Amino acid sequence: MNMHQTLPENVDVLLVGMGPVGATAANLLGRYGLRTLVIDKAQEIFMAPRAIVLDNEALRILQMAGLEDGAFATCAIPEVQMHSPLFGHYARAKTAGQIDGHPQLVTFYQPELERVLRDRLRQYSCVQAELGAELEDVTQDEHGVRATIRKADGKVAEVHARFLLGADGASSLVRRQLGMEFDGKTFTQDWLVVDVKNAPIPISHIEFTCDPRRPSPHMPAPGNRQRWEFMLHPGETREQMEKPETIRALLAPWCDTRDCTIERTAVYRFHARIVDRFSKGRVFLAGDAAHITPPFVGQGLVAGLRDVANLCWKLASVSQGRAPLSILDSYDQERRPHARAIINMARMMGALVMPRNRATAFLVHGLMGILHRIPFTRPFFEELQIKPANRFPRGLFQRGGSDARLVRGGQLPQGLVRRAPGAPCVLSDEALGNGLSLIGFGCDPSQHLSAPLQAAWRAIGGQFVAMRHRGQPDLGPGNWEDMGDTLVPGAAPVGWVAAVRPDRVVMHDGPLSSVDDIVTEVLGPFNAVAAPRFSPAPQTTS
């Protein structure tokens, strides 16, 4: 992360906002080699309690952004319990174990994650950060975006960018500059969030006390922390609820505040909102700037991370001349339906967590308890089948295909692979790297692809990967051995081929005999003439 006194005149991407979504985007853009200027009007990391939960998808995206296992502290959650004063523990979700090489559900400390993401930016010479700088005005035309930026010292500069990405939160200035509507619902209840350190009684799971008198989620977090959230009653004010004596009374059923440390408190009003489009021209929105999710399913930050994983590689492909502008239309096409589905699920879970009265609680929790005991319906809650799958009905992939073995528009599974016997094992995303991949399952796809198509695939940043099953003889350069059958034969049989995007979305798949047709069809959206890059930005010194 380069800190300069002078802002660059030209960049590929101007990124506004350096919270966890913006900082993840900056790391992804740095890994893809894009000249990026990231600005944030705040000069310090926001310390109030905010996001606390990540799922396996979010951890995989952070892995893509360069964060290895253990880069920041997490606390794996084995179970989420729903408790009612009328029915006891009436439902649960099992979250132990891993998916795609990561725990299904963890809690974390957001300021630590943000510090790690900002520190990692220092390795990218193409990324410049300017804290204390604020976007004042933005205009755009068919060639790019021109932004007026006021720095912390009061000086004003103009920056020309190919694209602008607004990750500047719920009150997004970028969104307001675009004049975009932000429709949705504001919940009438406010909630008090309390983070406690060194509570005397540990907790290993997440529990929702669904008491109509005062619902209260409770969960552990790294650093010997615990979090409670309490719904405010009508007439209760922020000032009243944040008083030490009020917090002491609320926590009394669990702990004595004299035996622990109240680290952070905040009162929030929850929202459920989404823009009618995630982009306008060359300006894109991500995270809370585009959608706000109520926290009842812990998907707010996760949704923002999905946004930037989907978008950043596409910005790189266009900026570096490997793809036309038209592929960027797929960002809104792919992300908005799933973001809306997650919001709707969170609103539904909110109705379960905060019933209006005892009669509603009796009906809702009683019905959930019955459904949880029926073998046919139990997995919807217990195995989290109720969570909308991150799959696209349409977008930048080949739809249909009666012979498809993989989920096109869905994610390729991740497993452990190694180069050769005795070599260290790595997660397969590390083997795939940052570009498009044509993967052969138990075969080398490049050996069966025509020379012109090999050249065309490489021209759009594609590589060839041979993934052999455990014990299979070496397939030549660039091949990996699947150590757990996750990819071959778990995802696809020997002799199968798949084209996979940098965000690990499957674009196309089929038998090795059809590899020429597969690559030809994938190349279709990339074949239009791409716009040229800017000339190199002037070099500045600090």
Could you explain how this protein is built, in words?
The chain is an alpha+beta fold. Among the domains are: 10-75 and 105-183 and 272-348, FAD/NAD(P)-binding domain (3-Layer(bba) Sandwich), CATH 3.50.50; 416-526, Glutaredoxin. It has 13 helices and 28 strands. Strands 1, 2, 10, 11, 12, 13, 19 and 20 form an eight-stranded mixed β-sheet that branches. The chain has an eight-stranded mixed β-sheet with strand order 6-5-15-16-17-14-18-21, sandwiched between helices. It has a seven-stranded mixed β-sheet with strand order 23-22-26-25-24-27-28. A hairpin with a 3-residue loop joins strand 16 (216-221) and strand 17. The chain is globular and about 75 Å long. Mean pLDDT is 90; it is low at 529-542.
Question: Could you report the average pLDDT, rounded to the nearest whole number?
Answer: 90
Distance between the termini: 12 Å
Say what oligomer this is. single chain
CATH architecture of the domain at 10-75 and 105-183 and 272-348: 3-Layer(bba) Sandwich
CATH topology of the domain at 10-75 and 105-183 and 272-348: FAD/NAD(P)-binding domain
Low-confidence stretches: 529-542
Highest CATH level, the class of the domain at 10-75 and 105-183 and 272-348: Alpha Beta
Q: CATH H level of the domain at 10-75 and 105-183 and 272-348: which superfamily?
A: FAD/NAD(P)-binding domain
Q: How many β-strand stretches?
A: 28
Number of helices: 13
Helix/strand-derived class? alpha+beta
Helix coverage percent of residues? 25-40%
Over all CA atoms, what is the radius of gyration?
Answer: 24 Å
Instruction: Specify the biggest β-sheet.
Output: 8 strands, mixed
Strand content: 25-35%
The geometry reads as globular
